[in-house]
Every structure is written in C-alpha cells, then in structure tokens.
Amino acid sequence: MRARLVCCIAALLASAAPVAAQGGLAPADEYFGRFNLSVLAIANTIRDAGARLDGGADPRALVNGPLSFVTDAIHAWEQKYPTDPWIPKDLLALEGVYLRVPSDDGHRLATQTEAWLIADYPNTGYAAKARAQLADAGPPRGSAQPAQPSYATPWERFAALRAPLPPSR
Fold it and tell me: Residue 60: which of 93, 113, 109, 96 has the closest Cα?
C-alpha cells in the first residue's frame, strides 16, 4: 500500500515537472528579444515612454524605438513563460502608453495590443481593463504627424531609449 502511494506521488510530480518548466515567473535576470530586455527593463521602458510622452517627446521616436523593443521582448518572454502573470499587466500598460500617442498609428497599436492581451489572457482582470481603457479612449485622435520613422539608422532608434526623462513635476 505504501509503495503504491509513493509511486502515485512520484508519477504526479513527474507529470507536473514539464508544466512547471514551461510556465511560471520569468527570472529578473533573464533577457528577452533582440535587444535583451529583462522583465524589469520592459516595465521601466513602458513607464519611461509614458513619462517622455507627457514631457513632449516625439511620439514617433518612442513608437519606432523603445516601444518596438518592448513588443519584441514581450513576444519572446511569452514564448518561454506563457503563464507569467506579469505579462498581461505589462500589455495593459503598453496599451495605455500607445493610447497616449496622438496619432492614428498610436490608436492602431493600442488596438493590436488589446487584441493580443484579450486573445492570450482572456480571463484576467487586465483583459477587462484593456477593453474599458480602449473604449474610454474613443476613436483615434487624428494626427498631423506622418507615421514614418523619424530615424534613419537602428542606432538612432536605440539612442531614443537613452534620452533623458523630463524633469519631474
């Protein structure tokens, strides 16, 4: 009887091991995407992009630079840790930053981010918040700025990530 119990427990643990290896939380010192962003760098880049937008930074520089790096990194992160609960939180924050970009391109990216969040994490509170956030934003604000990238080289786009933050209020 005792041997059966031990075998059942061992079988249960063995079957759960691959699931644990594929999901869970990503370690803070693991890097994702072409620009090797950690989960902390992803969250900080989203937050900093919002602060730069509030400070009057060029939205195209942020959309084509740091925010594109974040999108690439989140895709890679999600591939390796699909059940990490921080991913939907960062997708919601990314949608919010895109909604602050005063252009049709910003609204389109926010809509794509919302669709991604709802498709991959439909039962989270973040999916409901994403729907409400996009609905509250209303239709695109329109833009006097073209959606063309403002930087000629990848180095210039990367340098936008290192631009100083505006002074705090």
Answer: 109
Boundaries of every domain in the chain: 25-161
Q: What is the mean pLDDT of the chain?
A: 82
Half-sphere exposure for 110 (CA within 13 Å, toward CB): 27
Largest CA distance in the chain: 76
Q: Is 92 helix (H, G, I), strand (E, B) or coil?
A: helix
* Cα–Cα distance, 132 to 90 (Å, whole number): 16
| pLDDT value at 78 more than 90 | yes
**pLDDT class for 137, splitting at 50, 70, 90?**
confident
Question: What is the pLDDT at residue 139?
Answer: 75
Q: Say how many CA atoms lie within 13 Å of 29 toward its Cβ.
A: 0
Top CATH class of 25-161 equals: mainly alpha
**pTM of this prediction?**
0.71
Q: 112: how many CB neighbours lie within 10 A of its CB? A: 13
- Which two three-digit tokens encode residue 36? 């090797």
The answer to whether the beta carbons of residues 124 and 83 sit under 8 Å apart is: no
Task: Give the residue from 119, 131, 23 showing the smallest Cα distance to 77.
Answer: 23
Check pLDDT > 80 for residue 157.
no
